[in-house]
Specification:
2 copies of one chain form a homodimer.
Chain A (H helix, E strand, L loop, with lengths): L2 H4 L2 E5 L3 H12 L3 E5 L3 H9 L13 E4 L4 H9 L4 H4 L5 E4 L5 H13 L3 E4 L2 E2 L1 H6 L3 E5 L3 H14 E6 L6 H29 L4 H8 L7 H12 L10 H15 L5 H15 L10 H9 L9
Parallel strand pairs in A: 1-2, 1-3, 3-4, 4-5, 7-8
Antiparallel strand pairs in A: 6-7
Helix pairs in contact in A: 2-8, 9-11, 9-12, 9-13, 9-14, 12-13
């Protein structure tokens, strides 16, 4: 057999900030890769980068679904296009959106009815790591699903956490991570602007706090955006009403009170109301700055 | 001159978890060190460790005040004992409690009237680092205060942040750090117990999240206490109603809205109401566990 015949065929549905990088990583790993997005610009860019953008053939081994939420995931897999019904037996769907664990279990069951494997595999790490094939993937599924997904996981991830032998735990851990990440970004903004009212300059905040017990991964990653006045979106404000909303939906079903998450979500809602949704999520600081009459650093021209 | 005559004379007021370690660090650095605490056990322990516990002589060069709050600091310096009035001109008071920046400025002014220098120098790092002489100190004061305080800072600190040339910025940065640290501990507990409702075991939470974007310094330091079921106090729940209360007092004066800090403070208040005040601050998880009917890990017998 030649290398071409052996190559894994992968389809990536959703060529946004994360999906595009993952599709590129699959190409770079030598896999024949189809990309699909409703945005024609993303499609033509992917074609220019060497990807396939024609109809996804029934011969694909792996389908990565890198869309916004559960509704879009369900629509891709079981909507009018009926992707799952076209796949060969033994193919695997890798579900990467942030969804409720129950939804992941439902997708696993419905794929199973069609003879298709399902890996519950939310992703973490941001667009830059997606393009480098260096994501963290929080994965759960039957051993056969892990095995079938392996070429795509190897291409896209630096770290694959194997969290369980059926769908659900991957999405559960992702929700836990998003709770923390979303609260930490908003708390960073609360602390940075609070410091400004006391004469602590934003750059001094980053310099000192990043070396103290008050630091967080998100603080170190996002606070420099505020110091630089750079709100070009690495990760949008819009992510957080969605993801913290998913967390609180799951929490409500579990009768779990999450007051700090709820407080953070409200700050993101204010940000969305201010029209900041498409900006980088560090722009949550603008909510605090407006409330307190503070001037955040401006971007150097 | 002999080494003994050259030795700096230091008094440490408050031999609690932090002060005791700092007094030991001064002794280990070769300074003649007096300790004072209202608890006679701490005094006799310090005497056994080679410290002095008699009346603090007017010849001391440095007084470190390592008490709970502003009220105790003021009482030590200007209360019935009148410590500042007994000090020689050019001695320096190092104020280590977490206090409002305005209070630090007031202490600096009142010490100045008595010819005594004042260093606004809140500490961070916990009891273990205090005993190792490896604290972080967030310091601000006139250059002469830094110079006079230098032997004690060298003995106690791994890192001294020089944040300004008058009192205030040290306490401001400490308040910023405490806002973050207090919120991060409570958010860790919220996320860990939320994960438990979704089948994420506490040890899996620590293993995975500490390698993801949701991590924080406090999560990595405190979550293992919950996994181990070990609530012996490294840092007490009682610290947080005090320190987050100081943050919100300062915020109120600055007309600054801090809703996430406020939500976290309420969770600590519930913990205090449950009688958890003297336990390790990781015990904030017990508030969430009680609310959601979860069983946290028990300590191995």
């Amino acid at each position: 057999m030649t290398g071409v015949l052996q190559a894994t065929q992968i389809a990536v549905i959703g060529l946004g900030a994360m999906g595009y990088g993952m599709a590129l990583s699959c190409l770079h790993a030598g896999h024949r890769t189809w990309g699909f997005d409703i945005n024609p610009d993303a499609m033509s860019r992917f074609r220019d980068d060497g990807g396939e953008t024609g109809e996804i053939p029934p011969s694909v081994d792996i389908v990565m679904v890198v869309v916004l939420n559960a509704e879009q995931t369900c629509d891709v897999l079981f909507g009018s296009y009926g992707l799952v019904s076209r796949l060969k037996s033994g193919a695997v769907v890798i579900g990467c959106a942030t969804v409720a664990p129950n939804f992941a279990r439902e997708m696993e069951a419905r794929c199973g009815e069609a003879g298709v494997l399902y890996l519950d595999a939310p992703i973490s790490g941001g667009a830059a790591k997606a393009a480098q094939g260096a994501l963290s993937i929080m994965a759960a599924g039957v051993p056969a699903a892990f095995q079938a997904a392996d070429p795509a996981l190897k291409a896209c991830a630096e770290t694959v956490f194997e969290l369980g032998d059926c769908a659900g735990p991957g999405s559960a851990m992702k929700a836990v991570n998003q709770l923390l990440a979303g609260v930490h970004i908003a708390t960073m903004a609360e602390a940075l602007t609070f410091g400004m009212t006391q004469g602590v300059a934003p750059e001094q905040f980053v310099e000192v706090i990043s070396r103290c017990a008050g630091t967080s991964w998100m603080l170190e990653n996002r606070a420099p955006h505020i110091v630089d006045g750079d709100y070009s979106p690495k990760s949008q404000i819009n992510i957080w009403p969605k993801d913290l909303g998913i967390v609180l939906d799951i929490a409500k079903q579990a009768r779990f009170s999450a007051p700090i998450t709820a407080a953070a979500l409200q700050q993101y809602m204010v940000a969305v109301g201010m029209g900041l949704g498409p900006e980088d999520d560090a722009a949550i600081a603008k909510v605090y700055a407006r409330n307190a009459g503070l001037d955040l650093p401006e971007r150097d021209p």
